[in-house]
């Protein structure tokens, strides 16, 4: 049977369940599991830095960025397979990072890997998995549909299905990041971790709390898919509608049962961040850290920028930056959103005289303030009441928010018709 025919196969519902992630019998991993994982993966996973950031002064806290990739759990899980299963291979559903981790370590360990990715998965991640030799199947509107397809293939072909955020070995492997953070940042006060399915925060929180219970564990989600927060409120994992988000790697509608069982008593605080602050965090990381981080990995910094964690002022804080696989075509749009959120990219419409020199006067004012024009468009046809005026729509780049406000004040002094900001939707009638 081909992979495309799996959805048509009549597989009993009870056989489609993941035996390692049973809601009726959740598994809470132990610190011993994490220690074992650290020993087994020590030669196959790079020891990543956790360095003090120059952003510390800006936000009045000692910020240490742990620039890591979610490969630890994947390697440990593959190493734990039986010889027979290593020959057959494994399968997973993933929008990106878990698929990449399995594909890479499957290649290095000689284990066949099949990954099912939703149609919304970034093309860069799909291509990278194929370059690592994985069999990549792109199907499903979201990760839920992709998982169903992957589970069907696993039952038919004998592949082991590996849940990227809830398999016990995944949790144990991810927990080794927590061990590294504590060894790299003495006297740590808090650790901020992005949360999607919950696997990373479950493992890392267990490792950190086991060695130092006084460290505050803070989870961060996108407000467009706050499934872990919903689970904490309900007392168990619940379905949460996932909307389009820059943090696509965190868009998991239902968190893992094992992850929840392990992490629920270890997390001190959960916060949700807005999309514009995720974009701003990506921009800040590129400009100040020279680090390209995808939306999911940047949510921890986004929470700090948004001002959601004032209690961390003056504290020593580690922030996990997990994942640099932002799609190249999307990066430019994300950076523009970040510039707009910071007030450095501004759009406005001003009505000026249509007589000779009218637009020239406007551009002279803009240039005189040291503002750069990125785009300019003038429209005559939509102005109903004054045939001798013209609307000029501008997109300009400024140094910062104060510079933008200075431009706005100057334009309002000179012109009576100014529409400032993104509320502009079409025409402005001069009356």
Overview of the structural elements:
Helix 12 packs across helix 13 and helix 12 packs across helix 14. This protein has helices spanning 31-41, 56-59, 72-79, 83-88, 97-109, 123-131, 143-157, 168-184, 199-211, 227-234, 257-263, 275-289, 295-305, 328-341, 358-368, 401-414; strands at 50-52, 62-68, 90-93, 113-117, 135-138, 160-161, 190-194, 216-222, 269-273, 316-322, 345-353, 372-379, 389-397, 418-420. By secondary structure, the protein is of the alpha/beta class. Strand 7, helix 9 (199-211) and strand 8 (216-222) form a beta-alpha-beta unit. The radius of gyration is 25 Å and the shape is globular. Helices cover 41% and strands 18% of the residues. Its cofactor is pyridoxal 5'-phosphate. This is Serine racemase. InterPro entries: ACT_dom, ACT_ThrD-II-like, Ser/Thr_Dehydratase, TrpB-like_PALP, TrpB-like_PALP_sf. It holds the Pfam family PALP.
The number of helical segments is 16
What form results from the Cα inertia axes?
globular
| SS strand fraction | 15-25%
Distance between the termini: 70 Å
Mean pLDDT across the residues is: 90
Question: How large, in whole angstroms, is the Cα Rg?
Answer: 25 Å
In N-to-C order, the SSE pattern is: HEHEHHEHEHEHEHEHEHHEHHEHEHEEHE
Question: Percent of residues in helical segments?
Answer: 40-55%
Q: What kind of sheet is the major sheet? A: 6 strands, mixed
Stretches with pLDDT under 50, minimum 5 residues: 424-431
Taking strands numbered 1, 2, ... along the chain, how are they ordered across the largest sheet?
1-2-10-7-8-9
Oligomer: single chain
Please report the total strand number as a whole number: 14
Q: What class, by secondary structure content?
A: alpha/beta
Organism: Batillaria attramentaria
Keywords: Lyase, Pyridoxal phosphate
Catalytic activity: L-serine = D-serine; D-serine = pyruvate + NH4(+); L-serine = pyruvate + NH4(+)
EC number: 4.3.1.17, 4.3.1.18, 5.1.1.18
